[in-house]
Design brief:
Layout lengths: L1 H7 L2 H10 L13 E7 L11 H7 L3 E6 L5 E7 L14 H19 L2 E7 L4 E7 L2 H16 L7 H11 L5 E7 L7 H7 L3 E7 L12 E2 L6 E2 L1 H4 L2 H24 L3 E5 L2 H16 L1
Parallel strand pairs: 3-4, 3-6, 6-7, 7-10
Antiparallel strand pairs: 1-2, 4-5, 8-9
Length: 284
């Protein structure tokens, strides 16, 4: 854990901390107790927060932001299915990137004094640890997550994880989901979560099947080797790229319509810059 602490003290992470200070807001601004200020509406903001009178005067949508309660609950939800053992575009294991993102997010919540809880699992089983304060608790959560990734064997079940999070998270909270790029499959569970909580999704990118310079590629689901002649097919490469772009756009629209802020991360080097960018945009 000493190495984790050293990485978390990087200047870029301290910049991210700065974006969460001030009014002690959570990573995503939402309804709380006291009115804070008014800001321009951005795609993905909760439309129920629009101040229609102010919007009419300004000529464009304006939303009301509220200062959150001082004791914020943050629930970290980790997909530890075997798909997370696959390679990311950076050729790192996706679970390693997911764990680093979890480290950063947990550190930010702990720095603000949030109560941090953990839900993790796969299609075989899911588990939960209660939300508590303190650095020792955060380290315990992260150690549990690391063991779960090391022992991943069953397929992912993100809907099951979010359903479990709903059972252990009673009051309005920030739910941070760290999962595979393939999520989401549908909007039903997303809307259930968003009706009660704020949701921020960190999606870890997949290495394309047609990635060049790879000696051997194995399908993580079946364990079968993908033949080199298939991976080198240019027509297939164009088709895969077109399919990925279409899926990415569909996902972006779905998450935007549901008011879910998200980041897609392809390498561990992207974790802090992308999270800082999200926080900067949310602070307006």
């Amino acid at each position: 854990m000493a190495l984790v602490r050293a990485r978390l003290e990087l200047p870029t992470v301290r910049r991210a901390v700065g974006h969460t200070d001030g009014h002690h807001s959570s990573i995503l601004t939402g309804h709380g107790i006291d009115f804070d200020d008014q800001v321009d509406y951005r795609p993905g903001d909760d439309v129920s927060s629009i101040d229609w009178k102010s919007s009419a005067r300004a000529g464009h949508p304006i939303i009301r932001r509220f200062e959150r309660e001082s004791d914020v609950f943050t629930q970290l939800v980790l997909d530890t299915g075997r798909d997370m053992l696959a390679a990311a575009p950076s050729r790192e294991r996706k679970s390693d990137i997911a764990l680093w993102a979890s480290d950063v997010l947990a550190y930010l919540g702990s720095h603000r004094g949030d109560r941090l809880g953990l839900v993790w699992g796969d299609a075989g089983a899911n588990h939960a640890l209660p939300a508590r304060h303190g650095r020792d608790h955060v380290e315990f959560l992260l150690a549990s997550a690391e063991r779960a990734y090391e022992n991943a064997s069953a397929p992912s079940d993100v809907a099951g994880l979010l359903a479990r999070a709903l059972t252990v998270t009673r009051q309005r909270s920030l739910i941070i989901l760290v999962t595979d790029e393939a999520w989401p499959k549908d909007s039903d569970m997303i809307r259930r979560v968003r009706s009660r909580h704020e949701l921020f999704a960190v999606r870890i990118g997949d290495m394309p099947m047609t990635e060049g310079g790879v000696d051997q590629m194995v399908d993580i689901g079946t364990g079968e080797i993908v033949p080199a002649y298939v991976r080198g097919d240019r027509v297939l490469a164009r088709h895969v790229q077109h399919q990925r772009e279409g899926a990415a756009e569909t996902t972006r629209r779905l998450l935007q319509d549901c008011g879910v802020h998200h980041a897609t991360i392809s390498s561990s080097d992207e974790v802090v810059p992308l999270l800082v960018d999200v926080l900067r945009r949310r602070r307006g």
